[in-house]
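Final report, Chapter 2: Outcomes

The project's central promise was a pipeline that accepts a single protein chain and returns its three-dimensional structure in a standardized token representation, suitable for archiving and comparison. That pipeline is now operational. To close this chapter, we reproduce one record exactly as it appears in the project archive, with the input sequence first and the structure output second.
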Amino acid sequence: MSSLSTVLLEALMPWRNAKAWLVAFSGGLDSTVLLHLLAQLRQTHSLPPLTAVHVHHGLQAEADAWPSHCQVLCDALNVPLQVVRVQVQVGASLERAARDARYQAFTAATGAQAVLLTGQHRDDQAETLLFRLLRGAGVSGLAAMPRQRPLGGGHLFRPLLDVSRAQLEAYAHEHNLSWIEDPSNTHTRFSRNYLRHEVVPLLTRRWPQAAASIARSAAHCAEAQGLLEELARQDLRHAGGASEFSWLELPSLAFAPLVSLSPARQRNALRHWLTAFGQLPDTDHWAGWDALRDARDDAQPVWGLADGELHRAGGRIWWLSGNWLRAPDAPLCWNQPDLPLTLPDNGQLRLVGDIPHGPLQVGYRQGGEVMELAGRGHRDLKRLLNERGVPLFARGRLPLLYRNEQLLAVANLERLDSGPCGRWQLQWMPTSSDQGLS
């Protein structure tokens, strides 16, 4: 067994019980060697079922011949081939658009307990770190490509990150393998290609082990990032816990434990937390967190981000996105109050207990509402909401129950959500599908 086979088999040991192995097969050198190695290994070892997946971008005329080339090699190795044709949304970066389309296809192809294997190697890792360094990336970015990560219903794994391109070329020549040379890989107008053809060779002439050293630095950064994530989870546990308004079903954190941390730890914890909700802010945008944190309690601070907003209210910070950023439609007639009422873009409302008589309507706060309370007479709704500390962002979405223009109840607020005798209760289940969770 070749040294590369030994390295590959050892790297894949944790994934031997996977339901299936998929190989991201472009037909280039890296994926060709990876597929050939796996086909050879399965002759002497028990491995999961193996399938090659070729993504056809159709960005250049030469690409139309590549699926046939891949099919010939797969037939020779007795490996099934799946060809996926994608449309690339061309924008500012063709490289990024093609990559996004490719990984969308891989995500769809990777089922439960399956592992997608890609052929990126040590030289690719070094290029990735340099590219991100030039973009001013932090520790997470400088960790470059992770060896493994969740993908689709399974995982993505890069088993060749410790192998150089020279080793792959030597193996390919030894086994008389043929592979596709993508003409676009020589175009130095693309940033990655410029690094590959102009910068890395220059560095290597001065420092022969440059690629290996740079890739090793990426591994150090990956370890440091792991420690930062561990610290973030620890800090977020202290800032977690249920809110008295947990029925809002919004992600939130206690404000005091978070701001007791150093500014660097605050940002680290928030990065970890915000990752679940969409695109993270860049360095310049973190000034928005400082402004939200340092604002007066009555200033209603909001930090606008790419995929939503961070609000500070009631001693907590809250993540709002989707329908929470739009005013709900009202008023609504509740013609069948014995059945739940679906509120457009605002969840569902129901009455529990003895249904009050009369024509019922549902509205939202406009200002100036007055409510009659047993033993307290008429009370201004704004004052009642202030007494209960209802977050300002939620007040305009709280369903209000009316009968003949008389405000009967405010959903979910104790002693305001029922009739004078407590024989019924107004319950609101906010929408839980628009939190922006990814």
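Archive annotation: The chain has three domains: 3-224, 240-320, 332-429.
This record, like all others produced under the grant, will remain available to the consortium after the project formally closes.
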